[in-house]
Amino acid sequence: MPVFDHPEFDHHQQIVFGSDEASGLRAIIAIHDTRRGPSLGGLRIFPYASEADALTDVLRLSRGMTYKSALADLPLGGGKAVIIADPRRDKTPELLRAMGRLVDSLGGRYITAEDSGTSEADMRIIHEATDHVSGLGRRPGESGDPSPYTAHGVFCALNSAVRHGLKREHLQGLRVAVQGVGHVGEYLARQLHAAGAQLVLTDINRDALGALAEELGAETCAPEAIFDADVDVFAPCAMGAVLTPAVVDRLKASVVCGAANNQLATPAVAEQLHARGILYAPDYVANAGGVIEVEWQRRGDYARDAVMAHVERIADTLDEIFVRAIAEQTSPAVIADQLARERLDG
Ligand code: NAD
After folding, report:
1. Which residue ranges does the record assign to the Glutamate/phenylalanine/leucine/valine/L-tryptophan dehydrogenase C-terminal domain (predicted)?
2. pTM for the full predicted model
3. Residue ID of nearest Cα to ligand 1 atom 32
4. Deepest of 129, 185, 300, 334, by most Cβ within 10 A of its Cβ?
5. Where does the chain hold its CATH 3.40.50.10860 domain(s)?
6. 80 catalytic, yes or no?
7. CATH H superfamily, domain 14-58+74-126
8. Domain spanning 147-287+315-345: CATH 2.60.34.30
9. What confidence tens digit (pLDDT) does each residue in 268-325 have?
10. Which long-range contacts does 217-221 make (Cβ < 8 Å, 24+ apart)?
């Protein structure tokens, strides 16, 4: 399994493979870049089909965190951790403590957090073995869930994208397709509804979908049909790699803006979106609200208004990206990566 020659290797500073025989831990921590601060990124527990898949995921996700934190103006670098295991079957306190020891061995260069397959309760167990855990310093009344902040950031991003892509100043009557009404998608749908948008919702969990759609007067469709919905905006809020060449060919929307990580199946899809005249809000810019909230909560002078103001600056960053992308006739994804590298090098 090549590491330095891996297609997703991007001069990562450190890649740590950790194992613990007693608990069965098999984990990889990737520290991509610490020039702006310690690397922060979630811990994902997933039954990867192979070690190679786990390495690909952690390399890509850790680089994404570097770019996300740089463009969100956070004093953080990018890192990520994965455990190769089934969270429903293999997640034991012993496994989490062993992971905590591995995180601790890096002396704070990597700070862990929740991600898919891990919860706040898991972070508390990891904290028994290391201080380098975010998401535990909340005071009473503070949310333990960054999703509302992620959703608010996506909402602000969507407003920016609609201004630049559709030349519309408000969302009244705008038709938006939301793919996935989980933690983030539900908050986003509510906010869009409150702003006057008409929604088409889908989810593989039909129970949650029906109740929400009724409450918001939204249409629903089968998961596969969401790409054909006759809408102005497509908001992917489910899983990654959703924007394949075939999906982009089907989209009727003029704007893509959602919460999901790694929406582009391949980098070339950004050019395809651009060629089709679809304005794409780069995912790691749009969905940074959660990590912004996590960082405020980590630094200890948490104030909700200040957090919200910081989250709302996502729209300013996107305004800058869209203006440059339109002037240079290229994809916003290309400009976002350029801007992130400028901030890292500057
Ligand atoms: P979640 O698991 O709560 O919600 C995802 C929803 O998508 C679920 O309801 C699931 O049933 C649905 N779904 C899965 N596959 C689907 C499909 N093929 N078609 C339709 N629906 C499908 O996750 P979340 O926390 O809401 O996060 C959503 C996305 O945003 C993820 O990609 C996540 O990585 C990303 N993200 C989340 C946050 C956060 O603060 N939670 C921050 C940044 C990025």
Report:
1. 144-346
2. 0.93
3. 260
4. 185
5. 14-58+74-126
6. yes
7. Leucine Dehydrogenase, chain A, domain 1 (3.40.50.10860)
8. no
9. 999 999 999 999 999 999 999 999 999 998 888 889 999 999 999 999 999 999 999 9
10. 217/193, 218/189, 218/193
